[in-house]
Amino acid sequence: MCAAWHCSGATNNDLIDNLQKGALIRDDRVANAMRAVDRGDFTAHNPYRDSPVSIGHGVTISAPHMHAHALEQLVNHASRQGAKILDVGCGSGYLSMALSLLAPTNDSTVFGIDVLPELVLLSAENVGKSALGRSLLESKRVRLSLADGWKGLPAHGPFDAIHVGAAAREVPADLVAQLAPLGRMIIPVGPHGAAQNFLRIDRDANGSLHQTALFGVRYVPLVEGKQLPTTSAKHNTPTPAAGGEEDSGAACALNDGGEGSKPASGDGVESGDGVESGGR
User: Fold this and answer.
1) Rounded to whole angstroms, how far apart are CA atoms 61 and 108?
2) 156: closest CA among 167, 164, 165, 147?
3) For residues 93 and 142, what is the distance between their CA atoms, to the nearest angstrom?
4) 221 lies in a domain?
5) Which domain holds residue 135?
6) Does residue 70 form part of some domain?
7) Catalytic amino acids?
8) Which of 62, 149, 179, 185 could form a disulfide linkage to 66, CB 3.0–4.6 angstroms apart?
């Protein structure tokens, strides 16, 4: 039986098999979603190793076991008919796509947002590498846009499920306000470089909130406010971190998810009024 950080595999299916053997994936819906999203489309460096991997711009794609934890916590909420799901800090695009596939026939919509334009483009590029991903973008089952994660997307709420992929110094009030009755948010909370907790926040039918600390984590900070495009996406010059787990000493080469190539276009990225194009 494998434990977290020890479920690596030679292929995507091997990785998911090992996560199931280690009881890190218990729900078949989570296993099916993670099998359908090939991690190799979202990072070129050791994609099936159970560790976070840098995707450039000071952020990482989370370790597979952390994706499994997040999906297990949100699967029932994200699988509701017509569910609306917010993925704050979409980064590589992996979890936005996986969230949309927890119940592939339920007409859910995932709104993936990031504060860095390069990462919104990267998410769209990665999701669009597969025919399944392209269909999700074309049908708007997955909608990716530039926005401030502290503020969310109030015009599209309330959300049945909210995932936050970077550590907030405190629970963002705007995100809590966008959580639907019977909705759930998972979010790492705590100061950078100090103790952080992975929190589960549930809103009951009467609107009351219930918060549970699940376990300790180490994430980069959730950046507040808009960010301008960096001057060198190809070479990944340092920028404020937008999301993801910190690399815990693993030997991870910097890359932007596409073998150093800069996203060529904005296909799959939404723009328009106010929230979609101007916030996070």
Assistant:
1) 23
2) 147
3) 10
4) yes
5) 52-278
6) yes
7) 62
8) 62
